[in-house]
Every structure is written in C-alpha cells, then in structure tokens.
Write the structure tokens for this entry.
Amino acid sequence: MLVANSATLPIEKRNELIEYRWAEVGGPEWLPVLKQIVDGPANPNRATNHPNREYALLRLWQVAPEEARPPMLQEIAKPRGDIGIGVLGLLPERTLPQFEAGWLETIRRSGAADVSFQLFDRYGSENTLPALESIYEAHRGDWACFPQAAMLRYFLRLNPDYGVKELTAALALRKTTGCFRSQLSELHDYARMPQVEKLAIQQLDDPAPSVASDAAQALQRNGSPAAENALWARLEKFHRQWKDNPEELLRRLPDMTGLGSENGREWSLVQGILLGQAWFADAATVRRLKELTSPVRQSELDSALQTLESGEFILNMIWWPEDELDYTLGWYSGKGMANFEEKLAQFPPGSHFRMVTTKAMLEAHKAEFAEAERVASESGQIIEVSAPR
C-alpha cells in the first residue's frame, strides 16, 4: 500500500520512510519509486520539502546494486551537490581514473563542493598526484577544513612522506583558518599510520589546548596500544602542573570555551584513556585516573567504576544512516563491525550485555547479531537481545 500510494504521500513522509524507517518498510518493491527520486532534480540546499536523492540512491544500492551503479557513476562524474561521499564512496573500485580530469577541472575553477575533494580522497589515483599537490600548495594555509582534510588523506594514502610534511605544515599554519584545531581527528583511519601517530603524540604538548585535545581524540579513536602510554604520560604531567590549584581549571579566559581551555585538555586526556579503541579501561585504570584528575571529573569515573563492578553493560547496534554499524558497548562507542569485535573481545569474561531492538532490525542484520554472539561466547561473555516489536 505504501509503495502503490507513495506519489500521494507528503514529501516529508516519504523521506521519513526512506531515511528512518527503511528497516521496517524497505525492499525491492520500492525500486521504481527510488529510481524516480534519484533521476529527479537535485536539491543542493538540502531543503526538507524536496525528495531526498541521497537516501534514495543509498536504498537503491542496498536492494539492487546493479540498478544503482549507473546513476551513481553519473553522479560521481558530475556531482550535483545533494549526494555525499558516504553514498558515492560505496563502489568497490579502488580508483576511478576516468573521472579525475573532470574533478580537477572543477577544483581549478574554484568554488568546488566538498564532495569533489572527497572523491579524490576515496577514488583518486597516482595519476593526478602531481597536479593536486600543485593546486594544494598554491593555497596552502587558506583551504577550508573539509577540502584540506580530504586532500591530506589523499596525500597520506599515495605519498605518505609528502602527506606527513603537509600535515605538519597545516598544524602550524594558524592565521587564516581554524582547521588546525580539528585536523588530526579529521584524518580518520590515517591517524593509525606510525608517522601520523608520532605527530599526534607530539601535539599533546601543543600550547593550544584545542590542538592537544584533538590529538588526544585522534589517539583515542585510532591510536595503537602504545599511544595509551603517551596519554598517561601527558596526564601525569598535567596533574603535576595543576594538582595544587585544581579550581583554576574551571576558570576560562574570555576567548576560551570547551576544548579551548585547560579544563578541556584534561577532559580529552581522561576520555582518551577511558575510551580508547585499542585498549580497555579496567577497574585499576579507572582508579588510577581518579587519582590523577581534578574533582570535576570524579563523578563520570565513579559511574564507569560502578558499571565495571556490576558486570552489566549496555549494548546498542544500529545501522543508520549509511548502513554501517554504529555501536555502543558500555561506555565505548564506535563504527564498523571490525572495531566492534575488537572492543567486545576486550571486555572481561562474565560481562553481560543487554540490548533492546526491533524485530525488523534483528531480521535485517541477523548475520551481524550472530557474529556478535559468537565473539562474546568465545570471550566468556553473554549477549541478551530482545525485540518486543
């Protein structure tokens, strides 16, 4: 009935079904509707009262990849501004050299959308490396944050030494833009590269708390196990500096907010140790953190300690908005099945995870739920999933 009457539904309601309720209503029956939306006019301003082409193309890819491939390639060749890299990056190809000349021309004309740079990050080959290096250098220090981060990821993938050199320069250029404040965390998986991790560890001592906080966040998400020691060392140094006047941490200068304060630096170091992907914060870790942190941090650490002692943990697994697993395990969160399995296996034997989901979600991802139960069983843990509706 929904499919047959989709043309009579308000656009907002149709968007809601395709975006948020696909697990309940989605299926191949929607192919004609999805194709019609994808082939329709672009909506570069993302107005909510227009059909959502991005999600229509995503759902088309999920139910019929062979039908989605031609319009996806067409959009990749000439992006129209309302479909992002989260969808356009789903093709299995490593590179798409046939489109690089067009992307370069768009960037040379200036005013290119962020996705044009992100397409180089995702699909760019070595063929255009010299040209993109030249374009980047001509505007070094003046790039907006999304294009700069995309080009740095592209350089790190294809020319790591050059990428690290330009990343170091980007962190030092602080007059025109504020991109240096979030540059390291915007590198995503490339922060795992040893050269980048070394640079992130150095930035923990940066005079700007926002830069140090961003470095801690990058290490938290993508650092190797060795990065935990660096976070501890910086927190101990911080403790020695502030242990005699912790109340000063709550005072902010007029131009300091959030992570731009020393209070934010401490918070990021604590979070980095407590939430690191490559290590697990056991009871001894949490108690040690309490000894080194200011009173304002004590309550959240007490909460983590109580959860650990109970052995009862929250579990949440959702596949939205782009069909990639987004998970919560106790106080940890992350993306991707590989990261989920790595983190789940770190919990102590006897851990009990509880989750409430829908029958539609359970059915749509039964293979992933079964894999989660397998990993938990091998680690001596229990996963309890209920689906009342």
Q: What stands out?
A: Residues 226-242 form the longest helix (17 residues). Strands lie at 312-318, 326-329, 332-335, 352-356, 382-386.
